[in-house]
Amino acid sequence: MDATLSGHLQELRRGTVVVASLIVLRTPGYGYSLLETLSRAGFEVEANTLYPLLRRLEAQGLLTSEWNTDEARPRKFYRTTEQGDAIADTLRSEWTRIDSAIGDIAKTTANDKTGSAE
């Protein structure tokens, strides 16, 4: 993959990881389990990218966290806040609107190339 395409794909995926993380963390989870869940869903994100993102979302008030010390190794669990839920819903709606608009543009462009009109 060339550097130009790679850069554009990274830029496109960056925002989707935020939305996916906020949605997944509506059920409390810790960083590593979030990485696994995102990976299974097709979101390739590195730990060194995800953990700073989680801290940023927490600083913005979109996530809360607490330490679970019940197990041998303490784990920090994250949960989406009410504000995070609202933002996730808004971002998801906007994503759907943008996807539809791009689909319409692609369809119009394809029709223009074939000489037909809607």
From TrEMBL:
Q: InterPro entries per the record? A: Metal_resp_DNA-bind_regulator, Tscrpt_reg_PadR_N, WH-like_DNA-bd_sf, WH_DNA-bd_sf
Report the coiled-coil segments: none
The name this protein goes by in its record: PadR family transcriptional regulator
Query: Record's SUPFAM superfamilies?
Result: Winged helix' DNA-binding domain (SSF46785)
Question: Which Pfam families does this entry report, sorted A to Z?
Answer: PadR
Source species of the chain? Paractinoplanes durhamensis
Q: Which domain of life is it from?
A: Bacteria
Top-level taxonomy: Bacteria, Bacillati, Actinomycetota, Actinomycetes, Micromonosporales
Q: Where is the Transcription regulator PadR N-terminal domain?
A: 25-86
